[in-house]
Structure formats: C-alpha cells, structure tokens
Design goal:
Structural class: alpha/beta
Number of helices: 8
Strand order of the largest sheet: 3-2-1-4-5-6-7
CATH class: Alpha Beta
Radius of gyration: 18 Å
CATH topology: Rossmann fold
Low-confidence stretches: none
CATH architecture: 3-Layer(aba) Sandwich
Mean pLDDT: 94
Number of strands: 7
Distance between the termini: 28 Å
Order of helices and strands: EHEHEHEHEHEHHHE
Strand content: 5-15%
Length: about 260
C-alpha cells in the first residue's frame, strides 16, 4: 500500500533507538524526510546513518532534549515544515512511589506530558493551514493497565492522553489527526532494563523473568520494533484520515478487557 507520504516532513522524537527509531525507519521507507531527535549524539548519528543507508531517504539528526523549550523550538526550525509529529520520550525510572520526590514527579510530567503538548502547540496551526497533519504520541500500555513499578509513567502519560483527546476533536475538520499508540512488551533496551531490575528484586535470572512475561502474552512472544514502526506509519498515512482521538494498544493480546 502506498501511504501517500512521499515528500512529507516528519519530526520523530526519541529516535535514536527502540520504538522511536523504528518509526523513523518506517516513515523514511515511505519517502518521508525525517528529522530525528535524541539526546545521545553518537547513537543518534549512527541510527540516522543506518536509516539513510537502508532507505535512501533524507534524514536530519538533531541532538536535543525535548524537555527543554529552546531545544523544542530548535527542532521545529530544523525542517522547512512539520507534517508529521511523533512524540516519544524515554520512560521515567521504575520506582516505588515511596521513593519519589516532588522533583521526580515534576520531571516526569514535564517530559511525558507537557513537552509533547508544547510540540503539538508549535506545529499544529501550520498543519491546519496546509490541511494535512498527523500527530502520534507514543505512550505506554501502562495507560490502559497501570504497572506497579512504572508509576511515573502511568500518571503523566495518562494525563497526555486526556489532554490531546480534546485537542484532536478541535482539529479533525482540518485533516489533522492526533492518536496515541500504547506499546505493550516490546523487545527494546527499555524493557530489558526494567526486566533486569525485576530479576534482581525477585532473585530470578533475566531469562527466567522474560520467560514468565512471555507466558502471559497470548502471542507468546515480545513485540518487535519493526512491527510497531509499521503501525505508526499507517496512522500517519493519507488513508488514516478518519482515525483520530484514539489510543491503539499493541500488546499481543495481553490486555484482557473489551475496550
């Protein structure tokens, strides 16, 4: 399927690895010019070079911290226009709520709720003028089914979901959509880090910890970054213009509810 994105410009945050990189790769394969943002320069440059080599696309790596207002503005200015915005940020540290300070909470809210909203604010009016815009927020399956150790993710990402729900309905008439993608358990560095901490606390090996998790997933496997990136790319397509204000859970059937 031709997604109708040839020549569009995308800003993908948290794009140096994992799910963010997979989204950047999938969009580049569709002929999208991609601005890739991340904090770690070496990893970002290497990932951008890989995407450019594999897709032949135009890729612009920009070292930036999206929690900083000046960096967000610099990212917007790195492209002639932003047609597609992928909001994504590394998850906050796993912790028991008793260990968390006010500063921990404010940092998590700033990174995973306020920064994405500001990037939407910086790009959405231009999308409305061009009568095309696709915004995808990568949140977490924890929005649907909170995870005990990820309390700093559960709250701010749920807050972002609520905030953009109203915004999406305001701009839908202009062919601008806003959706959220909620990943379940994907084979990424982030999941490996969380599982390492769980294994240490439980006294199990990392392999045992992963096996226990996989056994609870109806698909009987972890997700791959590539399939996540493809789902994200479809939500950015011309064909997905009637899909907005939705949260797509991609978890191999793990969540047991109807809605």
């Amino acid at each position: 399927m031709d997604l109708g994105l040839q020549g569009k410009w995308a800003l993908v945050c948290g794009a140096s690895s994992g799910l963010g990189m997979a989204c950047a790769m999938s969009l580049a394969r569709e002929g999208v010019n991609v601005v890739m943002a991340a904090r770690t320069e070496q990893t970002l440059v290497e990932s951008a070079a890989r995407i450019q080599s594999e897709t032949g696309g135009h890729v612009v790596p920009v070292v930036a911290d999206v929690s900083k207002a000046e960096d967000r503005l610099r990212l917007i200015q790195s492209a002639p226009q932003i047609d597609i915005l992928i909001n994504n940020a590394g998850g906050p540290k796993p912790a028991d709520f008793r260990e968390l300070s006010r500063e921990d909470w404010l940092a998590a809210i700033d990174m995973n709720m306020l920064a994405p909203i500001d990037l939407i604010k910086l790009t959405i009016d231009q999308m409305i003028e061009r009568r095309f815009g696709r915004i995808v927020n990568i949140t977490s399956g924890a929005v649907k089914s909170p995870v005990d150790m990820l309390i700093l993710s559960n709250g701010p990402r749920a807050g972002l979901t609520g905030a953009v729900s109203g915004i999406a309905r305001q701009v839908a008439q202009h062919n601008v959509t806003i959706n959220n993608v909620m990943p379940g358990k994907f084979d990424t560095d982030r999941l490996r880090s969380n599982n390492t901490k769980r294994a240490t606390q439980s006294g199990r090996s990392l392999e045992q910890e992963v096996a226990l998790q996989v056994a609870t997933i109806p698909a009987r496997r972890l997700g791959t970054a590539q399939e996540f990136g493809q789902a994200c790319a479809f939500l950015c397509s011309q064909q997905a213009g009637y899909i907005t204000a939705q949260s797509l859970l991609i978890d191999g059937g793990l969540f047991p509810g109807l809605l």
